[in-house]
Design goal:
It is a multi-pass membrane protein. By secondary structure, the chain is an all-alpha fold. Helices cover 73% and strands 3% of the residues. It starts with 8 loop residues before the first strand and ends in a 6-residue tail after the last helix.
């Protein structure tokens, strides 16, 4: 990566218009972060400890939980560090790492939601061939592919951003290093790069969303062919959690990166929800509507608390 920068560190100014509320935000965000880590770790333990959950759907859910542990960890520790009264400075290399891993994990999750939609499509539309199509080898390839293509996308966006010279102002008007705010600090014309970044950031989630929409169109059609009301209810119940998680994941991307006139305060608020609240809600979304996960979670909690099983 070419580096013409004379800036060695950046100063994170934090969430706009929140001066004087640092301690309240610290307590709030720390609570979100701890609950996110605990919830996703419990989902991982529940799936790993129960042989009934060793299926493709839960394998991908496992990977989603891993992503939901690391995704908020990209920006939250530094944010909590300066909210507690410590330095707001972040090194040039640290800023590069923040931007890369934020987009790597975000893109990986986006691809993973697409793979999970395909898994539900095969399970509902081709149930008799499900175990053949979604073999261990195929699941491993799909899971690896989500990270591989996420890495390519993140490398492209990071290189695009940090190939620019940063030779003047170093105050980042945000709580972590992201593309829109970093381009504002560059000592060069960024209009063409902004357009390329806009197309790249918009095209990837749009492509994933269209593939998910195609999968669920086929799923809905197949469900409507089921004669029994109970069968339709169970099929819809299986997919509703995934659809809820998809909406929570894709809506912030549209609001942050595809709005014509960026609003710093709105962007920061939506970004915090995307970074902390969505990963915290995912374990609840996938466990509350799933009896098998709830049963496995109950066993895990009983073992952790040393409570006898009833």
């Amino acid at each position: 990566m070419r580096n013409e920068s004379v800036v060695t560190e950046f100063i994170l100014l934090g969430i706009p218009h929140m001066e004087g509320l640092e301690m309240m935000l610290f307590i709030l965000f720390l609570s979100f972060y701890v609950f996110t880590l605990m919830g996703n770790l419990l989902i991982l333990l529940a799936i790993i400890s129960s042989t009934r959950l060793h299926t493709p759907m839960y394998f991908f859910l496992c990977k989603l939980s891993v992503c939901d542990i690391f995704f908020p960890s990209v920006s939250s520790p530094k944010m909590l560090f300066y909210l507690s009264g410590n330095s707001r400075a972040i090194s040039y290399a640290g800023c590069v790492c923040q931007l890369f891993f934020y987009h790597f994990l975000g893109c990986t999750e986006c691809f993973l939601y697409t793979v999970m939609a395909y898994d539900r499509f095969v399970a509902i539309c081709h149930p008799l061939r499900y175990t053949i199509i979604m073999s261990h080898r195929v699941c491993a390839i799909l899971a690896t592919g989500t990270s591989f293509f996420g890495c390519i996308q993140a490398t492209f966006l990071t290189t695009l951003t940090f190939q620019l010279p940063y030779c003047g102002p170093n105050e980042v008007d945000y709580y972590f290093c992201d593309i829109p705010v970093m381009l504002k600090l560059a000592c060069a014309d960024t209009s063409s790069l902004e357009m390329v970044g806009f197309i790249s950031v918009g095209l990837m989630p749009l492509s994933c969303f269209l593939l998910i929409l195609t999968s669920y169109s086929c799923i809905v059609y197949s469900i409507l062919q089921i004669r029994s009301a109970e069968g339709r209810r169970r099929a819809f119940s299986t997919c509703s959690a995934h659809l809820t998680a998809i909406l929570l994941s894709f809506m912030p991307v549209v609001l942050i990166y595809l709005q014509p006139t960026p609003n710093p305060w709105l962007n920061a608020t939506v970004q915090v929800l995307n970074n902390l609240v969505t990963p915290m809600l995912n374990p609840l979304i996938y466990s509350l509507r799933n009896k098998e996960v709830k049963s496995s979670l109950k066993k895990v909690l009983q073992q952790v608390a040393f409570l006898p099983e009833k």
